[in-house]
Write a structure and sequence with these properties.
By secondary structure, this protein is α/β, with parallel strands linked by helices. The protein folds into two domains: 2-186 and 341-354, Rossmann fold, CATH 3.40.50; 189-339, 3-Layer(aba) Sandwich (Rossmann fold), CATH 3.40.50.2000. The protein is built from 14 helices and eleven strands. The chain has helices spanning 12-22, 51-67, 90-100, 113-122, 128-136, 146-158, 167-172, 217-230, 245-253, 269-277, 287-292, 307-319, 324-339, 341-354, and strands spanning 2-6, 26-31, 43-44, 74-77, 104-108, 161-164, 203-209, 235-241, 257-259, 280-283, 301-302. The longest helix has 17 residues, at 51-67. The radius of gyration is 20 Å and the shape is globular.
Amino acid sequence: MKVLLLGEYSSLHNNLKDGLLSLGHEVTLVASADGFKQIPRDVDLDSHLPSVLGAVHRRAKLFGAISKIKNFDVVQLINPFILYQKLFPSLHCIKKLAVENRKLFMSASGDDAYLWRFGRAALRYSPFDDILKYDLKSDSFYMQDDAAFRFNEAALKMVRGIIPIMYEYEVSYANAENRLPTIPIPLNLEKIQYKENRCERRIVVFHGLNRYGAKGTRHVEEAFELLAKKYPNDLELVIDGKMPLDRYLKLMERTNVVIDQTNTYSLGVNGVYALAMGKVVLGGAEPESLTSIGVSSSPVINITPNAASIVFEIEKLLERRNEIPEIGFESRKFAEEVHSHVKVASTYCNIWNRH
């Protein structure tokens, strides 16, 4: 099968590409580097020109790339809003992709208008308020606008199906006729080395700094402040990030416990990397999220968006620190069973072939 993956968030398509290649398919990834993460891609959509020239250049590169995307068996968009730009024929390009290729699908990942409208209304807790306050520093976001919603709706009608990567997107597209089953985040486990999770004198607890509001970092900061005062000799507490992926993973290697995002029901890409490395992971593991990816249990320790939840779970780990290596082993096993790039890619192929 000849597949083109358009767009990238946190190596989602990169890892899917690896899985598809392992299954013998021909795959092209057209994307930007996803900011500081510097994610590899086959066709680069970034521009190093400044300001307005850069904006024009990026649009020209994107339009040029789309004009060459023809005769693929499957094209998958990471998200409709990678094409939602001022002075750009966004819907025309999506229609062109649908007409000039055999099948067009869309992943439900990243920010989109359905998530901001339907997901926000359906979830008991979510990152949206913190995104507005801390990341955007605004009372509103363009994803909330009617124009963005109409674009999202129109794009949805042009694809064969939308494939959620986790529960938050599954519930956002609950009423979409072409919503397909949720497929877990893929990860190339061959590139992630597992090491036994041994604790030294202090347990190292790490939270990756990326989008401060989206990840609920304020709750981690508050928890760390309390924990540092109470357990100065038992815990090493680290918040760091905003660096290329390879450096970030190197930093994560020396940790015992990784706190993923605090505002979500589900585990994000960072959390899946931590599982694969054999870390104890705190993050989203609500029952709904586990059901959405077809599992009944998970080694992920579920936390909610408040410091008390984090402090409680870290204190429990201090009491059973001798179990940390075993929990880390279960983390890796879960990653292999649920997030293996080959297994996930095979699931995508089955879905694509059936629709």
